[in-house]
Amino acid sequence: MPFVQRIIRRVRSLRSRRATSVGRGAGVATAPPLELPDWAEVGRKRYAHIRRVAAMLEQWADEMDSPEEERIRWLRACWLHDALRDADLAPGISHGAAAADRAKRYGESDRGVLDAVRYHSVGYAGWDDVGKMLYLADFLEPGRRSRRKQRAEWAKRVPRSRDRVLREIVAQQLRGRLRTRRPIDPLTVEFWNSLAE
Fold first, then answer.
1. Domain ranges of the chain
2. What confidence score (pLDDT) does residue 145 get?
3. Looking at the whole model, is its pTM more than 0.85?
4. What is the CATH number of domain 3-196?
C-alpha cells in the first residue's frame, strides 16, 4: 500500500481512539505513532522526537479545528521530516532534502508536504500552512532542553496567534546567529522577509 494511503488509514484509526496521556514537559497530548516510511533511518531518540512533534501537531490541529485533510498533510510532513536524520548522507546534502527526494520517489506528490520536509530546518518563503506548522512543532516540541519555559509559552500561543509566534521565533533565530557571528542561510532571510511584510 502506498505511503500516503497508509498514513490516511492510520490517522483515521487514531482519531477514533485518541490517547489521553500527557507528553513530557509541556502538557502536549501524545498519540500512538502513525508510522515512518520503510526507508527511514531513525534511531530511538530521533523516533521519540518525531512522536513528540506529531503529538504537538495533533493537539494544535484539534485546538485550531483544522480540516482532516490539512491535519493529514501536517502529519505526513512530520513523519517524513527527520526520516533520514540518522542516515549517512553525502557531504552537502541535508537530511530534509534527502527525505523529500526519497519521499517523492516513493509516491509523495503534495508539493506543500515536500517543501515542508525539504526546508524544515531553515524556513522557506514559499511555504503553505504545512511548512509553517512543521517548522513550529519541530522547534517547539517539549523534548528540547534549551529555553523550555519560553518554548512551552510559545507552543501554547500557536493555535491563537501562529503567525506572530512564527515571527518571534525566526527573529530570535536570526538574532542568535548574528550574536554568535554564524552564517545565515539565504532561505532563512527570505523566509523572514516573507513574514515581516
1. 3-196
2. 87
3. no
4. 1.10.3210.10
